[in-house]
Amino acid sequence: MVYYKNKDFKKRSKKLLIVCTIALVIVLSVVFLIMKNYEKAPSNSHDSISQTTSTSPTAQENFTDGDEREPGSTSNESEGEGTVVDNQGADVIDTDESTWSSSKTGEIIVFTPINNQILLSGNILSGKSILNEVSFRIIDDVSGVIATGILDASSGKFSGSFSFNTTATEGRIDVYGVKENGIEFGNVEIPVRFK
Q: Which residue has the higher pLDDT, 42 or 20?
C-alpha cells in the first residue's frame, strides 16, 4: 500500500510541476511581449501632450489672503512699466462693504478694485489701513508684474490712480505691508480682468 501511495504522489507532483512550468512560460512570454512593445513606442510620445512652451503664470479664478512671505515670490518682481500715482487717500471710493477684500488681521482693507473687476488705466486703488503705508503689485497673465509701488495711508486711508498697458486678459493686484526685514504681511490678493 505504501508503494502505491508514493507512486500516486510522484504522479501528482510531476503533473503539478508541468502545470507550473507551463504557467510560468506563459507569464514570462506575456511580460516579454509587453516589454518588447514598450521599447518600440516612441520615447517622446507622451511628452508632446504634456509639455508647454508658455512662460505665462497660471491664471486663477480667485485668490485668498496670504501669510507672511519673502519678497520676490512673483516672476519679474522688480520690473514693470505701469505706475500708480499716490493720491494720499484723497479719492477713496466708498463702496458696499460686502465687496471689500481684507487681510486676515484686518490691517489692510481694499475698497477698489473689487474681485474680478475689469481694470483700466485711470481706475483707482483705494482702501484703508492701520499701517502708515501699503505696498502693491499689479500682475498680469502675460508679462507677470507690470507695476509695483507704495501708497501712503494718510489718516488711515490710501488711494492711487493706475497707469499701465497690457495685452493680458486676467491678473491680480496684491496689496500688503512690508516689515523692516523685507517680509511681506497682511497680503490681500484681488483677481482682476483687463480689457
A: 20
The cell for 195 is 480689457
Chain segment 134-174, per-residue pLDDT in tens? 999 999 998 899 888 899 997 899 999 888 888 899 999 99
Instruction: List alpha helices for 75-190, DSSP H.
Output: none
Query: Could you tell me which of 143, 123, 125, 119 has the C-alpha nearest to residue 59?
Result: 143
Q: For the whole prediction, is pTM greater than 0.85?
A: no
Fold of 83-194: Immunoglobulin-like (2.60.40)
Q: Is the peptide bond before 71 cis (omega within 30 degrees of 0)?
A: no
Asked if residues 103 and 138 have their Cβ atoms less than 8 Å apart, the reply is no
Residue 102: exposed, middle, or buried by beta-carbon count in 10 A (0-12, 13-18, 19+)?
middle
Q: How far is CA 72 from CA 108, 113, 181, in A?
A: 21, 23, 13
Each domain of the chain, given as residue ranges in start order, spans: 1-53, 83-194
